[in-house]
């Protein structure tokens, strides 16, 4: 027998067996005693006190889409022209107070197209360090458009006017001067507990930026989740372009819109094609979002109202303190003892109500439209027992 061949064969078999065991250990279902307790099946009464909406139900979404198409068969588009896509674009242009609007398959694409067209030949842009554009888009602006993103406000939602002024000054008056082409602001800022950049700060930044020839983009993916007192028209008016998500809370499976002037949106459509975002058919998400949009405004306003009722009742009990930001959008924070939070989580699990997990003395509470599925009193009892 060839000893070397025997050893190689034995070693190979042993390694293969070890790899197989490791793979099995990673994929095998753990014993029931080690699995987290299950929630009831998601249905029309399921409530999510954490998150911007309930997770999508493919069966319900498909049924709703079929129902809408049967009621209005003329929905088809061709490369985002005509049909439901065009109707959705008109609806959002009107809502956001812009001349035109374009459908995009993703917010990442909408953000990158917007910043590229606003920068033009001045390939530097100011962004928040905690923004999606800077943290969650794989350096797409740098890699695909050669735009240098200069981050501001680490760990915070809002850059100060002094930070913006200093960044512009350093860029324009350094040894090799470079103009800032665009300023991109995300609001609400997901990575900063959903805080919003105040309108007064936006106005100051916009005035300064435009004085230096820079244009402004708003990443408003979650903009429509803002409290009822939020002045949408005044806010959006400070920006040249604004992106809003279709799937986070408007019942679409994917998609985004980008609004702005007719000239900017025409250029955005051209760049959408260049980036590979010209889908042959976009009517599916457009139909669903178009159906959800008219009722979403009143529903989210009512959800905010009920959230305030819930928070007030919990604070009045003496067992809970509110620790929300003054600039909160739809994310609020409740300070409580760990035992109280864990008991609420368990009661919620049994009732089909998702409660945020306790960490660092507090839990998050999200205002979203699933709160409308049950009375406020039920949520108060869930927390207080």
From TrEMBL:
Its GO CC terms are: cytosol
Q: A Gene Ontology molecular-function term?
A: L-allo-threonine aldolase activity
Give the record's GO biological process terms: glycine biosynthetic process; L-threonine catabolic process
Q: Which residues form the Aromatic amino acid beta-eliminating lyase/threonine aldolase domain?
A: 77-325
**Ranges in a coiled coil:** none
> Which controlled-vocabulary keywords does the entry list?
Pyridoxal phosphate, Signal
Question: Origin, by domain of life?
Answer: Bacteria
Query: Which positions carry the signal peptide feature in this UniProt record?
Result: 1-25
InterPro entries registered for this protein in UniProt: ArAA_b-elim_lyase/Thr_aldolase (IPR001597), PyrdxlP-dep_Trfase (IPR015424), PyrdxlP-dep_Trfase_major (IPR015421), TAT_signal (IPR006311)
The UniProt entry, under Pfam families, shows: Beta_elim_lyase
Required co-factor(s) are:
pyridoxal 5'-phosphate
PANTHER family found in the cross-reference section: L-THREONINE ALDOLASE, L-THREONINE ALDOLASE-RELATED
Which proteins does it associate with, and in what oligomeric form?
Homotetramer.
The UniProt family comment states: Belongs to the threonine aldolase family.
- In its UniProt entry, what is this protein called? Aromatic amino acid beta-eliminating lyase/threonine aldolase domain-containing protein
Protein source organism:
Pseudoxanthomonas helianthi
